[in-house]
Structure formats: C-alpha cells, structure tokens
Specification:
85 residues; mainly alpha
Length: 85
C-alpha cells in the first residue's frame, strides 16, 4: 500500500486519532532516535504545535519515522487496525 493510500485507508477508519497517538508514542519512546534527523524532529514538533499530525503530511512523517526506528512495532500497529503496507 502506498503512503497516500495508507493515509486514506487509516483516515477513513474509526480510531484514526488513536493510531496517530500510538505512532507518536513509538517515535517519542524509541531507543533508535539516532535514526531521526534533527530536521525531521523539528518538522514533527512544528506539525504537532499546529495540530496537523492527523493531516497527510503529519501522518506520513509519523509513519516514516516509526517505520524507520521501530519497523516491527509499526507493522503491528497497522495490523491491529486491519491496515497493511
């Protein structure tokens, strides 16, 4: 599933905001923070402050960071919600 398709599929399901929160939790609690570029962290903070994590750009950034830092947790979050890559 393409990133845009993942966004549309997730956005249309109940529990979308819980998924966004879970993705944020994965990104913020990973031991692999060295895999996140400082500019990506700044962008994530900007999107959070704007309340835009549920918009396409914010959701895709969260997915990318979660996938890169915790691929198994990311896949499990999607699986639990009936979403696949």
């Amino acid at each position: 599933m393409e990133k845009a398709d993942l966004y549309l599929a997730a956005r249309g399901r109940p529990g979308f905001w819980e998924l966004v929160e879970d993705l944020m939790d994965v990104v913020l609690t990973t031991y692999n923070q060295h895999l996140i570029d400082p500019a990506e962290g700044e962008r994530l903070a900007e999107l959070y402050e704007r309340g835009a994590l549920g918009e396409r750009e914010g959701f895709e950034l969260l997915c990318e960071l979660a996938r890169r830092t915790e691929p198994q947790k990311f896949a499990e979050l999607l699986r639990r919600r009936g979403l696949e890559l």
